[in-house]
Specification:
16 strands, alpha/beta
Amino acid sequence: MNVQHWAILVDNSSPKAVFIESLLKGPIPKGLEYFKDQQGLLFSKKTLSEFIDEEEKHDRKIITDTCTQNLKTMSSGEQKKVLLAFLLEQAPDFIILDNVFDHLDSKTRETVKTTLQKASTTISLIQVVSRKTDILVFTEHMVQMGPGGDIDHVLKFEDWSDSRTQELFVEQRIPEPLEPMSYDAPIVIKLKDIRVSYGGRCILDHINWTIEKGSFWELRGANGSGKTTILSMITGENPKGYGQELYLFGQKKGSGESVWELKQKIGYFTPAMTDNFTGYHSVIHMAISGLYDSIGLYIRPTAAQLRLAKAWLQLIGMWHLKDVLFQELGTGQKRMVMCIRAMIKHPVLLILDEPTTGLDDESARMFVSLVNRFAQESDTTVIFVSHRSEPGLNADQVYQLTMTPKGAKGEVLY
């Protein structure tokens, strides 16, 4: 049987879940009749989560039956490689690849691309993709999904249009905090000769990193190189920093500070956080909740807090959505709200952990533009973590983690 390879270009307003369901179970979306009566499988974050749940709840290792390591304990890259290998072994007619390159470092991306290139001779591949640079080079058919789920044929990259080309932000500066945080020391975080091991395996090997007040850092590293370990030690959620030369806001780790005292000085956002906000919280209340580091707002906001939230929502062009439930927003809109939520108190340190994962090109551009404003117009120290090099990100310095047999080494690139 002949094979066909398609790229379905989506943005964060596209109903891709419905589209994928139709491809797998019918009726086949218009324009893709070639796949009628064919059997397909889905490569997605949801599929991976289902296998992880099966391992945890029922102790059934379906896709890792030949591995000693549990799926949950693997890095993002290893999880995706294992899932892809399992799906290919089933020899379906086609595989739907839902943003297959999200969370992958450059080396793992190339490995996955090579695997898909080999599989493309016998299996049709349908990429549901948000970023143009992720489209596989051997793709023959490119279509763009509209807001209603309809598709328009696109012949070239440059033909992929985006209706939201206007600049998102107004010219005003970012709003000032209600109560400025007092922190006058020149150094915010200092890691000196930090070593971390798990189960006899060294993860971080003699890490030295000094983060000065007001600096803007990009943290890079391969899957499993220890980026999350470093972040969790900084936020106070990882006990591995005790007894080491780790200084947080002028205090040595374990010298009496509480986790909550640390969190008061930190603004933090990772896309996984949005899964925690399942209540009926309005957009304006979600923004204000950043002042309390709470999951939603459970007290009556003051007039000053409401004015502050209004200024932030006006900045990102979402004031008209102030009373809309957070859960009803699109993915890109949720990220913008969560970003201002993390910054609304002007924390001493702002950590953004892979914040653009899953965003389309335009939403990612807007998000990066907002983060640049934070760094330019405040004294907040920013750490931006990403597996992909985001165009337009104006980080002052880059800290690179490089994996070695003895654990990850750290290096300041510039």
